[in-house]
Specification:
The structure is a homodimer. In chain A, 37% of the residues lie in helices and 19% in strands. By secondary structure, the first copy, chain A, is α+β, with helices and mostly antiparallel strands. In chain A, β5 and β6 form a beta hairpin. In chain A, α9 crosses α11 and α10 crosses α14. The longest helix of chain A is centred in the last third of the chain and has 20 residues. Chains A and B meet through β9, α8, β11, α9 and α11 of A and β9, α8, β11, α9 and α11 of B.
Chain lengths: 469, 469
C-alpha cells in the first residue's frame, strides 16, 4: 500500500505555477526550484516515497511567511513548513505539490526570560543550539528527541524523547505560539502566563498539528533549571516484564526519575558489538536522576532497592560525568549499533505508546511477532511513558522485505491501539500513520476534520497529512 | 454593563418547549421545572444576574446525555452542563434558556489504574470524594481549586489552585475524555497512553471549553503518589516585591515546591482577627514541600536561605501534621477571614495571572488601585504561577459599590493582559470575562469562533459563553 497517494486530493497545476511566479517576484534568489534541493525538502527518512515540493522559499521573518501564505491562499497552492528535515512519517512530502517554507534562516533566539523560565525563539532554532546559548544562565531546555531537530518542527509534531518522563513533551513545554493562519493573518495562541483558563487552548491545538492548521513563526517555550547533580545508572533484568515492573514501582513510588530507558537483549548485544562493551545480554534499564547531590543519591539508592526487589542484576550508578557517560554509552550509541547488526540496511522505527501496565505484554507480543516475521529489529523504549521503538533493519533494495516490514509496522500500530494506547507516541501521523487514525480515534476523526475545514477551508496547509480522506 | 445580555442570540421559545416535552417523556421525574431548582442551576456565585434554565435533567449515564443532546439538537434547545455549581463567571447561566444537565447522579469512580497512575470516573465526582476513595492506594489527585468542585466542572473550566505550581492544572492532568458532541455522537478524545502525537489534541481543546463544544461524560485523569513526607512553612516579607523575589529564586533554583501562596498584609490582618493568630501583619508566603523526609528537610532549609537573602522575617517550618495545620491556618481560613473584615458583604474574586517577573509590579499597581477606589479587598495569590485573586468585599445591596467593584475588576483584567498575562488564570471566561477576550487574544478569537461554529453549528452548547459576538 502506498500511503503517500492522497485520496480525494488533486494537484492544482495552474495555481501552483502562478503562486511560484508571484513568490519568485517577491523573494528573488530566496526561492529555489533546483531539483536536488526540492528533493531534500521532501521526505527522505524512511521508505515513504520522496515527493518534492515545486519550490523552496527561505524565509527570514514572520512577514515573509505571511506574504507566502497570502500568495499561496490566493492561488490555492499547498504550503509545507520545513524545519530541518528530521521527521519520520512523511510530514514534509508534497503529494500534490506546493511550496516548502524553509526556516533555517529564522533561527534567532529572541529573548530569554530567566525569571519566568521561558525563552522566545524562531522556529528554525535547533535544540542543541538553544542549550548552547543557555549554558551560562543555569537553565536548559530538556526535551531531547534524539535527532538534531528544530524547535518549530518539534512543536509541530508534538515531539518528546528520553526525558519526557520527568519534563513532559512539547505539549507541556510550549507556552505560546505565533502562527500565520491559512488566511495570512498572524495570531498569538496565548499569553506568556504560566497557566490560563481563557478561551480555547489554541496552543495545544497547534502543537502536534504538523503544519496542517497554520505555520508556526515564533515559539515561547518553558525552560528548567540545570540540576545541581545528575546521576546515571544501569541495571540488567532477566525479562522485559521484570524491567517493566521496576519502572512501574519507580514511578508509583514517586521517584522523580529524569530518564528511564529500556534496551532489549538484542539491542544490548548490538551495543556490545558496536561499542566494545561487556554488558550482560539481557533486557537493560538505563536511568538518569536529576536533583541536589543528596537527592540524586537517595533516588539512585531507592531505585537500586526496587530493582533488586524486581529481580534485577548488578546495579551500577554514579554522579561522575565520565563514568556516567560510560554507563550510558550503550544508549547513546544505540542507533549506530543497531545499524551495525546488519550493515547496508536502513533503520525504520515504529512508535507504539501504551499504558505502562500493558507495556511488558506489548513488548513481548512484539518480540514474538518480530521472530515470526524473520526481521532483525532491536527494541529501545522510553519506558517511563510506555513508549517504545522497534528499529526494523530493512534492505532498501528488497521490496519483499519492505513489504514485510510495513506489514509488521501496521500490526505494531494496531497492537498499541488494541492495548489502549496510540500508534504514535512522539513521531506524529504525517502520511505514514494516516491509515490508523480511524482505528485509534473512531468518530473523533470527524471533528478533527471539521476543525481542519473550518480553519483551512482551501486545504492549502500541508494537505494529505494527519486527516484521512 | 450587563455582560449577561447576549448579543446576537435569541431565545427559541418553540424549540425549548418542544424539547422539554420530549425530555419529559424520556426522563419523567428526572426532569424538573421547579423554579427554585432552576434558579439553583443558574449562576449564584457573584453579582452576575441569575438566568435559570427552563428545566433540569438529572442524568445517570452517557446514554442519558446522548439522548438529551439528540433531542435538544433536533429542537435547537440550549444545553448547559452542571457539576456542582461552584463556577465563578456565570458559566451555568441560561441567557437564552435551555436545559441544565445535572451530573450529581453520575458520580461513580469507575476504575483506578494504580500501575498507570490514572483513574476513570464520571463528571459528577467531587474531588474530595475522589481522594477519600483513593486513600488506601497510596495515590492522590492533587488539584485543589479551593471549592468542593466536580471533576467534570474542573475539566470544563481548566481549573487549578494551590498546588498547580508542582502538579500542573487540569490541562496537564486530564488524559482523556468521553464527550457527547453537539450532534449526539459519543467520542473519546484520546487513548490512555501517557503521551501521544496522534492527531489534533481534542482533549486539550475540550479542557477549558466550558461546555461550549460538547458535554463531558467521563474523564480519565492522572494520579500522583502521596508523598512520604510533607513540610509546611511560613515566612513574612517586608514587601510584596521581596516575597515575589523569593518565589522567583525558589523556582529558578529548581526547588520542587508543592504550594507557594502569598497573602498580602490586609489578608494577614484579616486572618489574625478571624483565626486569633498573632502573625506579623506583612506580606506572607506559605509553602508546602512534598518528598521524602530528607528531601522536604532539604527543600525547607534551602527555601529558608533564599527567604533570608530576600529580606524575609522569621521562617518557620515543620513536618508535624498538627503544627503544619497551625502554620497553614491563615491560608485555610483566608476566605472566611476576609468576609470577616466587613460582615454582611460578599466576596467577588478577580483572577489575574501574569509572568512571574511582572507579579510584584502587578500586585503593587493593584494595591494602589484598590486604595484609590476605596474598596476593601485583600489579596491571595498562587504566586508560583503568577496567579492572584483580589477578594473584593461588596455590599450586594449597593449598586454604586457593585459598579465600582465591576470597574475595578475590569481594570484588573486589563492590567494582567497589559503585563503579558491573562484575565483568568483558573476561573474561566463564562459570561463575566467575555468582554476581555478580544483584548487578550486579538484575531485569535476569530479562529476560536470558527472552531465553535464547525463543531456546534446550531450553537446549542452553552450559548452566550466564552466567544464574544
Amino acid at each position: 500500500m502506498d500511503v503517500t497517494l492522497p485520496v480525494g486530493l488533486t494537484r492544482n497545476d495552474d495555481g501552483i505555477t502562478r503562486a511560484c511566479e508571484a513568490l519568485q517576484t517577491r523573494f528573488g534568489e530566496r526561492l529555489s526550484r533546483g531539483q536536488s534541493l526540492r528533493e531534500q525538502h521532501g521526505h527522505t527518512m524512511t521508505w515513504l516515497k520522496n515527493q518534492p515540493p515545486d519550490a523552496v522559499v527561505f524565509v527570514q521573518s514572520t512577514q515573509d511567511v505571511a506574504d507566502i501564505v497570502a500568495i499561496c491562499a490566493e492561488h490555492r497552492c499547498p504550503i509545507i513548513p520545513f524545519g530541518i528535515g528530521s521527521s519520520l512519517e512523511g510530514q514534509l512530502n508534497a503529494p500534490i505539490g506546493g511550496v516548502s517554507i524553509d526556516f533555517s534562516q529564522m533561527n534567532q533566539i529572541l529573548k530569554v526570560h530567566a525569571e519566568d523560565l521561558d525563552v522566545v525563539l524562531q522556529p528554525g532554532v535547533i535544540r542543541t543550539q538553544l542549550n548552547e546559548h543557555l549554558r551560562d544562565t543555569g537553565l536548559f531546555f530538556p526535551i531531547d528527541p534524539g535527532a538534531e531537530a528544530s524547535l518549530g518542527g518539534m512543536a509541530a509534531t508534538r515531539a518528546s524523547g528520553t526525558n519526557a518522563v520527568r519534563y513532559g513533551t512539547m505539549r507541556e513545554n510550549v507556552i505560546s505560539l505565533e502562527v500565520v493562519m491559512p488566511d495570512g493573518r498572524i495570531i498569538r495562541t496565548a499569553s506568556r502566563a504560566k497557566k490560563s483558563s481563557s478561551g480555547y487552548d489554541l496552543t495545544r491545538l497547534m502543537v502536534g498539528s504538523e503544519g496542517t492548521l497554520g505555520v508556526i513563526t515564533e515559539l515561547t517555550i518553558r525552560l528548567h533549571g540545570i540540576p545541581e547533580a545528575v546521576a546515571g545508572a544501569i541495571c540488567p533484568f532477566p525479562t522485559v516484564e521484570a524491567a517493566c515492573n521496576a519502572v512501574i514501582m519507580t514511578i508509583q513510588y514517586g521517584i522523580p526519575v529524569a530518564r528511564i530507558e529500556l534496551l532489549d537483549a538484542l539491542q544490548v548485544k548490538a551495543c556490545n558489538l558496536y561499542s566494545k562493551l561487556d554488558l550482560v545480554e539481557e533486557p537493560m534499564l538505563l536511568l538518569e536522576f536529576h536533583g541536589s547531590e543528596a537527592s540524586v543519591k537517595e533516588q539512585s539508592e531507592l531505585f537500586g532497592e526496587i530493582a533488586s526487589d524486581c529481580g534485577g542484576g548488578e546495579f551500577k550508578w554514579t554522579t561522575d560525568p565520565d563514568e556516567r557517560a560510560k554507563l550510558w554509552k550503550a544508549r547513546h550509541d544505540a542507533y549506530w549499533s543497531a545499524s551495525g547488526l546488519r550493515p547496508g540496511t536502513q533503520i525504520f522505527s515504529t512508535d507504539s505508546c501504551v499504558p505502562i501496565s500493558r507495556l511488558a505484554e506489548c513488548v513481548e507480543e512484539t518480540r514474538l511477532d518480530i521472530e515470526e516475521t524473520g526481521l532483525i529489529a532491536p527494541i529501545v523504549g522510553h519506558v517511563g511513558d510506555g513508549n517504545f521503538h522497534v528499529g526494523v533493519l530493512v534492505d532498501d533494495n528488497d521490496p519483499d522485505e519492505i513489504e514485510r516490514a510495513e506489514a509488521f509496522a501496521g500490526r505494531q500500530s494496531e497492537r498499541a491501539i488494541r492495548m489502549g494506547g496510540t500508534c504514535t507516541g512522539e513521531h506524529g501521523i504525517g502520511q505514514g500513520k494516516m491509515a490508523y487514525m480511524r482505528k485509534e480515534h473512531g468518530d473523533a476523526v470527524d471533528y478533527m476534520r471539521a476543525i481542519k475545514q473550518a480553519i483551512d477551508p482551501q486545504n492549502i496547509m500541508n494537505p494529505g497529512k494527519i486527516i484521512p480522506a
